[in-house]
Amino acid sequence: MKKLILAVLLLISFLLGYGVSRLSQPVNTGPRVTGIGGIFFKAKDPAALKAWYSKNLGLQMGEYGSNFEWHQGMDSTKKGFTLWAPFKETTKYFQPSDKQFMINYRVEGLNRLLANLKSAGILPTDSVEKASYGNFVHLMDPEGNKIELWEPNDVEYAKLGKLTTK
User: Fold this and answer.
1) Is residue 97 classed as helix, strand or coil in its secondary structure?
2) What is the extent of the structural domain holding 32?
3) Which side of the chain, N or C, has fewer Cβ within a 10 Å radius?
């Protein structure tokens, strides 16, 4: 339960910080992280946990979890999404990390960012996976946390959300 409370607090902190940070133009407009695309965590019973959050906290669930929709920075016509998603505690998706959480970061300029990381000696753990709603790749931070970089296609992601929302 403490881990779930921590996850909710992290999400709230991010959303507040993100909102404040978008009041001004970003300093770095090159390849970079632009926000959190999702908080993924392990759970004993993801279906029951999703039902609990839906019933008690009003989260609307889809196939993968609950999407938080927001508008991007100064352009209120552009939608963005942050996914809250419990995974089975036996998932191998977080490997090689042994942690309970994985954060998905939204990025701009994924290929240039990967080139910058490579020149700093930081290599991804897999190759870029392309999907209609964006491109994904994983790497490990210095403390052994697996992180996911996602260059989103929010127009296509919005279509996916409409298909999976229950």
Assistant:
1) coil
2) 2-164
3) N
